[in-house]
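Thread: "does anyone have the structure for this chain?"

Original post by V.I.:
We have the sequence but no experimental structure in hand. Need at least a predicted one for the grant figures.
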Amino acid sequence: MYDYKYLEKFIRSLFESAGCSKDSALQVSKILLAAELRGIPSHGVIRIKDYYHHCKIGRINTNPHVKIVHDSPGTAVVDGDNAIGVVPAVYSMNLAIEKAKKCGTGWVATKNSNHFGIAGFYAMMALEHDMIGISLTNANPTVAPTFSVERLLGTNPIAVAIPALKQPPFVADLATTPVARGKLTVAQKKGEGIPVGWAQDKDGNPTEDAGIIEKGGAMLPLGGDRLHGSHKGYCLGAIVDILSAVLSGANFGPWVPPSVAFLPLLDETVGEGTGHFFGAIRIDGFMKTEEFKARMDHWIETMRNSKTVKGQPHVLIPGDPERENEKRIMKSGISIIPAVAKDLKAIADATGLEFEIK
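Reply from O.Q.:
Generated one for you, tokens below.
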């Protein structure tokens, strides 16, 4: 197990060595470790290898000038200047919050960015302002739309965070695929297979091979197949792609630049970088904040106290598992897959940093 502060210091030092500013390196460490604490290792330290590689080869700009390129009272488009994704994402969500303070709602589309980690991190930024937060992003094409064998969409997550009064906040953070792509990587690192319904081979056949994307296969939309609603998962992924990229001027669909080393960087583009979309909604633009939060408590309690199937103590509210994970993992330490720890050790050795394999 690794202590949070140990990993934070290592990640900060690593990305500073790659040319990132202290603030940027700190932001990267915060979001990668937020994923680990929330029990989402697919977006945690396993991402360091690709992030660091892209910084070192110049695929990511480590000294960006993030700026607003289109502005209105309640909306904006932000150019991330090809930064590591967390940097323009934090900037953009803060901008959405500031616009919401003035206009009631704020909406920011971001282009020319890169992979930004867990979407929930940004949606939750709105909670401390008594706002509802929304965060979307497109991603490198690993997903075949229903009935297709071509990889045309990313896992394209949706995150929504809603405050409550006495109850913990409602925090939904989900891919528009059965699982995030990183869970295939985790399974592959562990030498495990994947359930049928997560992916297909290059001919469209079901597969249990966690490494199938590297062999020309694709992930499936949420639902797995048409019978189980994959067309709805396809629609959700498409909505995220359009709001994040078509609206912002970023690359969409199959042209989204890859965040993993095994996918090639295309010569052709239809925009700039990866795209995100952020929203902040002021609750008191609709009703008194305390009244809404009390009503959210009532909603949450209604769901949580409903009659359950045998063996389940209560119905989970979105955000419950992650919140429990944070408490447990911060206390017990962060577990890193041995193969990932070896990758981090190799990077550390190459850069003159220390990293202990436990």
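V.I.: this helps a lot. The domain at 1-62+319-358 is CATH 1.10.1530.10 (Hypothetical Oxidoreductase Yiak; Chain: A, domain 1).
O.Q.: and The chain has two domains: 1-62+319-358, 64-178+222-304.
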